[in-house]
Amino acid sequence: MTLQPLIFYASLFILSALVLKAIKHSRRLPPSPWALPIVGHLHLLGPSLHHSFHKLSTRYGPLMSIRIGSVLGVVTSSPDVTKELLKTNDVTFAARNSSAAIECLTYNSSFAFAPNGPYWQFMKKLTTVELLGSRTLLQFLPIRTNELHELIRFLFEKSKSGGSVNITDELLKFTNNIISQMMLSIRCSGKGGQAEECRTLAREVTEIFGEFNISDVIWVFKSFDIQGFRRRFKDIHRRFDSLLENIITNREKLRKEKKESEEKVKDLLDILLDVLENQNSEIKLTRDHIKALFLDFLTAGTDTSSMTVEWALAELINHPMVLQKAQQEIDQVVGRNRLVQESDVPHLPYIQVIIKESFRIHPPIPLLNRRALEDCKIGNYIIPKGTLLFVNLWSMGRDPETWKNPLEFQPERFLSESNSEIDVRGLHYRLLPFGTGRRGCPGLSLAMQELPTTLAAMIQCFNFKVTSPDGVVDMSERPGLSSPRAQDLVCVPVARCAPSIVN
Ligand code: HEM
């Protein structure tokens, strides 16, 4: 017998075994549409992934699998499945997907994208206890109060002349100012120099993180830069690095010159430099870690926060009865002579449910994004190690099985007996705007102190006239990884009272 038939049969055997293994494996994956070679299901996905997933899941059920080029993903929008994935299997899904842009821009040292290892655990503790813990947040209260006063005064000036205001821009400046002062003691809305550059860079980074890079998902394009992506993110990285290097070096100089007696509230840079200089720290922090954390906070904490107030305000303008009821609550609890402050929020239950309802319909981060660290069995399905997990919060908030009249803005639903227990802290799987489990958002407390107060102060002092001919705010979304409004919110503030800060 010659060797040729033997080689032929051996190859056939190996090939069949491989095909059978692939079929067996794919049978155990959650259901999915037919995939095309190389691109997988890319042809079924539009610019807003959460919209595309929403449409597909109405056909393929509460847990479906999807191929984004060469990358395998699973998608769910069911609260029960989410609970099984992110509570029962919290450790398995405690990692995130990264991308070439994220790796470069965050010095491959990001906290938000770090795997669940000693570095992430150290930073998680530092972030929740020190950087965004209750003591630090209290220390920064004057910054938040001051910025809110600036915003309200600015709106008052505009209301005197009857001029329109781009609320989107103003809210973004407001949240940017708060984060950049907490971190670096600089205000991002100043003109020129570091302040302006910081704001521009934050915007560019958020944009590029939200864009789709074909080289990340189709392996044949891995080494090519067909969209000019790499060139762009490398340029942003160079500018961001030089800005932060400058700020850190100046601060180090100041710290050396500082006399012991000079007492000032430490910003986050001071706290981090203390850790960096501490020889006994359990993790040796580097300058790159500090720079990456600033980028994490700038990108994770600014437009999410401004977007929340913007969507809620837009809903109130389109629902005058809800607005009126909220204003009545504020008038009763706070009155019209002083401005709402953070300590009032616990006494403003209607404002709180307005924020929840807004999160339900407009989650600022519509898809939670995790990656499986090992194989995971969910029901009869196997989710293989390395699979991306997308929890579609946007779709969850629109599910008629979970919510009555899901497309209607009805804050009262959270006052009803069946829903009154639901909060946003990640324990109620129907409403997860800040995520859940160990990778849940560490900025939750800051956001939930700042955002209801800001919304309440704005509607306490003003009614907002829309400039569109029909007097209605357009509620469409712009495509991207977050869910910003398609059109900036532009309206004319009309003063309804003048609390003491404006006199
Ligand atoms: C309305 C405001 C905000 C919303 C809706 C929001 C939402 C989220 C969501 C959905 C996640 C992913 C959670 C998960 O995977 O389970 C997240 C993570 C994160 N957020 Fe926020 N966030 C907000 C404000 C902030 C603020 C103010 C900061 C910081 C100053 C911040 C810093 C972070 C960081 C660092 C992570 C990554 C945590 C990790 O991977 O361990 N966020 N946020």
TrEMBL record:
InterPro entries: Cyt_P450, Cyt_P450_CS, Cyt_P450_E_grp-I, Cyt_P450_sf
Cellular component, GO, one term: membrane
Name used for this protein in its record: Flavone synthase II
Membrane-spanning segments: none
PROSITE patterns assigned: CYTOCHROME_P450
Alphabetical UniProt keywords: Coiled coil, Heme, Iron, Membrane, Metal-binding, Monooxygenase, Oxidoreductase
Coiled coil location: 244-271
PANTHER family given in the database record: CYTOCHROME P450, CYTOCHROME P450 93A3-LIKE
Binding site for heme: C441
SUPFAM superfamilies found in the cross-reference section: Cytochrome P450 (SSF48264)
Gene3D superfamilies (UniProt xref): Cytochrome P450 (1.10.630.10)
Similarity remark: Belongs to the cytochrome P450 family.
Presence of the UniProt keyword Iron in the record: yes
Protein localization: Membrane
MF terms (GO), sorted A to Z: heme binding; iron ion binding; monooxygenase activity; oxidoreductase activity, acting on paired donors, with incorporation or reduction of molecular oxygen
Source organism of this protein record: Citrus clementina
Key word Coiled coil present: yes
Needed cofactors: heme
